[in-house]
Structure formats: C-alpha cells, structure tokens
Specification:
This protein starts with a helix and ends with a helix. Strand 3, helix 3 and strand 4 form a beta-alpha-beta unit. The protein is built from six helices and seven strands; from the N terminus they run ααβββαβαβαββα. Strands 1-7-6-2-5-3-4 form a seven-stranded mixed β-sheet, sandwiched between helices. The protein is globular. By secondary structure, it is an alpha/beta fold.
C-alpha cells in the first residue's frame, strides 16, 4: 500500500475514532476531572497506535531523565496538531496553554475545559498575561505539568517562529525552572495535508533552564536549545 493510501486510511480511522470517543465522553462532563484526564490519555495512546500500525510512524520520547514526576513548566516546539496529543500519553496530568477561541468548539472545547487546560486571550495583553500566570500558578501548585508552545502556533520543520512573551511571564512570575522540548513531528505529520510520512516522531526533553534568569537571557537560551535540538532531530 502506498504512503498516500495508508495516510488516507489513517485519517479516516483517526477521525472515526475521535467521533466515537467524543460522543462516549459526554458523561464524563459530570464526573471528577480525573476521569476526563484518563480518557484523554487513552485517546492519545490509541491515536499513537493507529499511526504506528497504519502509517508506520512510531513515537519516541527522549530525555526522560530531565522530566520530573510532578509539577513542571514545559516549553515545546510546535509543528503539527499531533504535538497536542502524543505528550498526553506520557504526562500524568498535563495542562496545555491554548487559545481561548478553541473552547468554543463543540466537544473539543467542553472536554478541554473539563480537563483543566489553560485558555489564553491573545488580544488581552497585560490582563491576559496576568490571567495566564494565575492559571499556571494554580496548575503547578496542584502538581500538574504546564505545557506551552512559545511560538504560539504551528511552525514548519526547519523554520523558527516568533517566541511569544507568555512563556517568560510564567517562568519569571512563578520563579520555576523551564523544561524545553524539541521535536521533528512536522516531518512525519505536516501541519497541512493528509500525508503521514513513515519514520519516527521524536519528542526530546532537554536540559532544564534554571529559575532566575532575566527575561532576555531566558528567551535566548530557550530558543537556542529548542531550535538547535529540533533541527538536529530533522537530520536523523
């Protein structure tokens, strides 16, 4: 079977599975948050299994020695939608920072809100940053893993987006270390189109950036580590 046919089959199965799960998860809206969290982790694991079985794309997590068991701030490279799915299979209780407009999407938004994801208003400026900081503080205090995409949107493999100030606001405001995460996901799951290229999607946790750096230094170190590692993964 060609890559195109395998990709088409995967897309059909993937969205069929998501539709079935979306309907089946409705009762979880009235249950404790832990039930929704477990369902999302199951969704991630089955999606990864489908990707491997149908398209020959497997997922590998590296640098796990840098990942603590409890609360942590993760700043991740974002190349495709899969970046919001696969890490859920590994992280015990993730809180992804996401655009508040996504909460208006039926089912997806309901479940994200129930799971305790962190919405942010990109147009709110200072007030939005304060709200983001408060929500991130609460999530970390609860022992959760706060995941933010510093570029704010998907960026093609090999390209660098503009690193937004939200990640620095959390890092500086909470005085916590930051764990960068690199990836090559876009080489196998493009941001646009249906083709899923066989190979290995790698999510690599890098050496943590210690707390206490000034904003300019932190942003420079974060970008350098993520971009250097992500570029290296594209060559493997």
């Amino acid at each position: 079977m060609t890559v195109a046919l395998r990709s088409a089959a995967f897309v059909a199965l993937f969205y069929l599975w998501w539709t079935v799960l979306a309907l089946g998860m409705l009762p979880l809206l009235i249950l404790p948050r832990a039930a929704m969290r477990a369902a999302m982790r199951l969704q991630a694991k089955i999606s990864m299994a489908l990707l491997r079985l149908v398209c020959g794309v497997r997922v590998e997590f590296r640098g796990l020695e840098h990942l603590s068991a409890g609360a942590v701030l993760i700043a991740a490279k974002h190349q495709c939608m899969f970046d919001t799915i696969a890490p859920m299979s590994l992280l015990a209780d993730s809180a992804f920072v996401m655009r508040d407009s996504l909460l208006r999407i039926p089912f997806y938004g309901w479940y994200a809100l129930k799971a305790g994801m962190i919405p942010v208003d990109r147009q709110g400026k200072a007030s939005a940053l304060r709200a983001l900081l408060a929500r991130a503080r609460a999530a970390l205090a609860a022992g959760r893993q706060v995941v933010i995409f510093p570029e704010g949107t998907r960026v093609a493999p090999g390209a660098t987006g503009v690193y937004k100030p939200g990640v620095a606001a959390i890092y500086r405001g909470l005085e916590v270390p930051c764990l960068p995460m690199a990836t090559n996901s876009g080489a196998h799951w493009p941001a646009h189109g249906l083709i899923r290229q066989p190979g290995v999607i790698v999510y690599e946790f890098l050496e943590p950036i210690p707390a206490g750096l000034d904003r300019k230094r932190f942003m420079a170190v974060l970008e350098e580590r993520i971009e250097t590692a992500s570029t290296a993964l594209l060559a493997t």
